[in-house]
Specification:
InterPro entries: Glutathione-S-Trfase_C-like, Glutathione-S-Trfase_C_sf, Glutathione_S-Trfase, Glutathione_S-Trfase_N, GST_Omega-like_C, GST_Omega/GSH, Thioredoxin-like_sf. With 335 residues, the chain is mainly alpha-helical. The protein has helices spanning 45-57, 96-102, 128-137, 156-171, 173-178, 183-205, 217-226, 229-233, 248-258, 269-279; strands spanning 36-41, 64-68, 114-117, 122-125.
Length: 335
Amino acid sequence: MAYVNPAGEFTRDQRYIPTRITADGRDGYPVEPGRYRLVVSRACPWANRAIIVRRLLGLEDALSMGIAGPTHDERSWTFDLDPDGRDPVLGIERLQEAFLARYPSYDKGITVPAIVDVPTGQVVTNDFAQITIDLSLEWTAFHRSGAPSLYPAALREEIDKVNRFVFADVNNGVYRAGFAGTQEAYETAYHRLFDRLDKLSERLTTQRYLVGDTITEADVRLFTTLVRFDAVYHGHFKCNRSKLSEMPVLWAYARDLFQTPGFGDTIDFVHIKQHYYVVHKDINPTRIVPAGPSLSNWLDEHGREKLGGRPFGDGTPPPPPVPAEVVPAEHGPVG
């Protein structure tokens, strides 16, 4: 499977399944505890958003989570982490099976995160941007006591604005650099990425979080790219003007979030590196996974508390991850 566009600029296929799971069930899928399964891979930044939001909101009991392995082939993500290679709830070996159960001739990407209707075994949605918003707004009846408001009404317009340029220039920007097929396309993406990172550094110099004085959806979306930057994007995707650890403001901001319950405890650096360096064979034909970089500095003091801010607003930190969802210690910053 090829990822690089030999003609030049990488363009992301954004044809996702738009069906929504809502409190009123207007798309035919009402919010019901235990009915759905969130399928993720810890390697994927888009899925990582849903993992974090589910943790912060305390939806573990209402929405179960299946974790696919860090690598996949041309067909789809697989459940090779499970003892018999099958998801224990859905009973399938490949996420592709849930997509084909609903759309037998499905011809778009089999992507994570995806939410599957357990009774029918059919995928409901893989619209990653909408999934996290709906977890915040539609699943409120099942939020934990003390759940933060990640998408507050008063800040939504600003959050949406920030999310648009973060997606275009940073979240997707690293891929536009990494999958570019010409020097011109690569350099355009490279400069766009670092120009935006410089602007974000300026924004975060005087405020602890991207929008308002609490963690919001905007911080979740930026974090999942930043946390992968030095381990993957700097080398593998040639985003190498600077490491994250050489950009003081963004580095402190990322460490602040990493050390916040619900963020760093979802990060599996081993899975992240395995995914990118093994799956993207046209970029890394040897499939050798680098041993570095050192990760212990993720736990260094960040000093961002001096800017004020209340991480969870009027809410509280989430409890520790449930035992079945704990990232192995050796896959973290001290592994």
